[in-house]
Structures
1.
Amino acid sequence: MKITIIIPHYKTGKMTAYSIFKILQHSDGHEVDIIVVDNNVGDGSVEYLSPFMNKIGYVPYPKDRMQSHGIGIDWVLQNNFVSTDYFITLESDSFPIEDGWLNKYEAAISQNIDAAGSILKLSG
């Protein structure tokens, strides 16, 4: 099962990059698409994401629109940036610390659970 991971991003270049690194490190053979929706294009954060640009989808959110994580996620979905049947939304400062974390989400999906809380660690 291929899952898209959507990460709304606002002025957190280092933390978003670390989260991407940990997702890739602990994807445990799962097929994932990672989409970072940047809610503050031009703040220099994209520099931290550059090592991952060939592994993620980077979506700059329009500056002339209301900025928020939820609206950014909706915008990505409405504009067909997600090509998988299922997606997970993460905060830019949440990340897995061990393999197997995606198994829990896949189990929820297979049981037709349409929403689940985060099982990830937060930076704070």
2.
Amino acid sequence: FENDSFFNRIKNCHSLKFLTIDQCHLTEIPQVVFTLLNIEEISLMGNEIDTITHEIYKLTKLISIDASYNKLRNLEFLNTGRCEMPALKYI
């Protein structure tokens, strides 16, 4: 995603609940996403993301994350063996 102005605009959207960043050639989840603490649904479909890291745990209200059609090889956030995201229902 070449235009960082989008991410600069959303970083102060603290009440944002739904975010779609589909088909933007992202190779990782942008750091600004992890500051959106009220986010409930994220769509990252059709990017080039290969890892979802533990930083996703900051999003305790997240219900759904759609990362289909990416290059996921590492879902390290699932490897802890305990539920860090009580609201998460759909991956």
3.
Amino acid sequence: RRIRRLIPALLATIVASYIAAYIMFSPADFKQMSGSAVYALSGMSNFFFWMESGYFDTSSIVKPLLHTWSLSVEIQFYIIWPIILYFITKVGNIKLPATLFLTVVGAVAAVFYLNKDSSGAFFLTPFRIHEFLFGAIVVLLERFKIHKHLNDAAYFFGLALVLYSITFFDIKVTTFPGLAAMVPAVGASLMIYAGANTRFAFPLSSTLATKIGEISYSLYLVHWPLLVFTSYIFFDKISAIGTIGLFVATFVFAIGLYTLIEKPFRSTANSKLSGPEFGLATLGCTAIVMFVSASSWAMDGWD
């Protein structure tokens, strides 16, 4: 299910970005793009970008796949967490306390490592996995029902934390991830936990909000490559009208990706392939794209 959900749309985005980079980029920039494509398709682009320079430096604007670092962390979490959870269940019925303990350990490690290697604390899975573990905590807490007024308070407080993060976090002054990452993570967790049973959820459960939520993965995939290629063409000087056009284009491309790739491939109802067959076919397509990307990476962007 995770392969059907994530990989086809990711593969389409990488192929489209690779072709666009081949047409537009200089050989040096295309070489970098080729390397990031190989790592992104192997689920390890967070390591690739960690070994390079910072996320928001000037060179980030020629990295169309920079945003895939977080998807790589997600994929690594899907591999690591079930194994950890398996051994936790072998010990006894301690899933919740063990998950809480690991979340705290991860958060403390992230704070300490931030002072040692801020780029590593940002990109590497051991220092971001505790943010995913909040989702595991929500799952384990859902069986405990609380009073409706407490539900409302939890959702409202969670929403306030998320809005605070959006409004007041500043790249120039906010130390991130560290403790700052806990603010939106806790906020989102409280909203998810309380959301189904609170009156405050109406604005975010409206038709418009849910439709945006449905295409959110496609929005995530297309937003950064579109910004990179547009900035590359206009030398990072995008006008106000251009910004509006880019915003509209992002939704248009996201709807297209969702309609043509993401939605059809994630459904098993009309699929002619079984789960293992689909996984094997996806792996074959990925291998072909990786082979081509590795070629242009090894040959200096086919200069």
